[in-house]
Write a structure and sequence with these properties.
Layout lengths: L6 H9 L10 H13 L4 E5 L7 E7 L7 E6 L18 E3 L2 E3 L7 H17 L5 E6 L9 H7 L8 E4 L10 E2 L1 E10 L14 H21 L15 E3 L3 E3 L9 E10 L5 H20 L6 E10 L9 H10 L6 E2 L5 H6 L3 E4 L14 E3 H18 L1
Parallel strand pairs: 3-6, 3-7, 7-15, 8-14
Antiparallel strand pairs: 1-2, 2-6, 4-5, 5-16, 9-12, 9-13, 10-12, 11-12
Helix pairs in contact: 1-3, 3-9
């Protein structure tokens, strides 16, 4: 008989793989596939086309019929570079009622529980199918979800998706979307004493960044409209998280690059923010080229995520509420793969153990109580599927 690992043993194993988004995840995928196959579960892979060292994994247990439930998680984690950890981030350490380690909350805790539940469904038998979907590149814009969803269509189509991001086991039915760019301002170098004859990429880039500040001030002062009022903050916000450029203090900068992005509330579209960005870039480029025609602004869209909107008759939400007994309304400003599943026609809800407040932090942890609550949730889910 193949060994049946406990949720805790599965968590220990998953955290031991340093699946930082910039690196590979194949060792983890190989291990999970072998473990599931050892329990008679047929596993499918989707390999990332331009990075074959990354792959997603999906599987189906139960009758070959439609209408099943998908447990959706991601395998990648954020880096630990520059963070001061008091424990080894890639070894689960139990202390003071907490399990410390990178990904324990975001979101290998849920992944471990999902793998455990899939094996239990295979062992016990279910009349409604259970599927698992483990993606790559979630931490860099949920980029791995759309190709995974497309690849999963070889399985009988499920109806409900539980995305296990940390919500303290509360049902989250809406979150913001986003679109993020990398902006490269191409200036024209001159001696800083002749600044008027050149184009400082930094100073013109600062105009675009100041526009973001002005937009945030205007948006925050306006009364919330529609679903925006469900979120904190109750508006779309604009953010610049990285910037670098310039050669020396006495040279008008030839280059300036920065990240530029939006967190978009449901009810608004990504395209309307794309148009505003294009208009601002065109306006600034015109001003730059009036000084030096060689100057321009290059804008590359890095990723986009549609907003996740609450909807009536959400059977995934209903299932989670029946299991947890939670009837509170919960909306978050961070993004998840739930919106991609919603766009693909699934009913989706976000619900998982742990708190988002410790995700991405040094000494990330999940409490033993939350991990056990997640196990009890899976137990009750299996009873319903049976």
């Amino acid at each position: 008989m193949p060994e049946v690992l406990s949720p805790r043993a599965l968590l220990d194993k998953l955290v031991s793989f340093p699946t930082v988004s910039r690196d590979i995840n194949l060792p983890l995928i190989d291990w999970v596939q072998a473990y599931l196959a050892g329990h008679g579960i047929t596993v499918h892979r989707h390999v990332k086309p331009d990075e074959p060292e990354k792959a997603a994994l999906f599987a189906h247990v139960g009758p070959e019929i439609e209408g099943g439930v998908i447990l959706s998680g991601h395998t990648d984690v954020v880096p630990v570079d520059g963070q001061e950890w008091s424990t080894d981030p890639f070894t689960v350490t139990e202390k003071d009622g907490k399990l410390f380690g990178r990904g324990t909350t975001d979101m290998k805790g849920f992944d471990a529980l999902a793998i455990w539940a899939l094996v239990e469904a295979q062992r016990r038998g279910v009349t409604r199918p259970l599927q698992i979907a483990l993606s790559y590149d979630e931490e860099i814009g949920c980029a791995g979800a759309p190709p995974l969803i497309k690849a999963m269509q070889v399985l009988p189509r499920a109806s409900d998706v539980i995305v296990g991001e940390p919500t303290m086991m509360k049902a989250v039915t809406g979150h913001k979307g986003g679109v993020t760019y990398w902006v490269h301002v191409h200036g024209f170098e001159v001696h800083s004493s002749l600044l008027h004859t050149g184009v400082s990429a930094i100073m013109w880039g600062a105009k675009m960044i100041d526009w973001a500040n002005q937009m945030n001030a205007t948006l925050s002062a306006a009364a919330p409209v529609g679903m925006a009022g469900l979120f904190d903050p109750p508006y779309t916000n604009v953010h610049v998280g990285q910037i670098h450029g310039g050669t020396a203090h006495n040279i008008a900068a030839k280059d300036c690059e920065f990240g530029f992005g939006y967190r978009v509330v449901p009810g608004e579209t990504l395209d309307q923010w794309r148009r505003l960005t294009e208009e601002k870039v065109a306006e600034l480029t015109k001003g730059m080229q009036a000084i030096r025609p060689e100057a321009w602004i290059e804008v590359t869209e890095k990723f986009s995520l549609p907003p996740f909107a609450p909807e009536e008759d959400n059977t995934a939400e209903g299932l989670v509420r029946q299991i947890t007994g939670d009837n509170s309304e919960n909306f978050v400003s961070y993004g998840t793969e739930a919106s991609h599943f919603q766009v693909a026609g699934y009913k989706a809800v976000v619900c998982g153990p742990g708190s988002i407040t410790v995700a991405h932090q040094p000494d990330e942890y999940i409490t033993l109580a939350q991990f056990d609550e997640g196990r009890q949730f899976m137990q009750r889910l299996l009873e319903r599927l049976a």
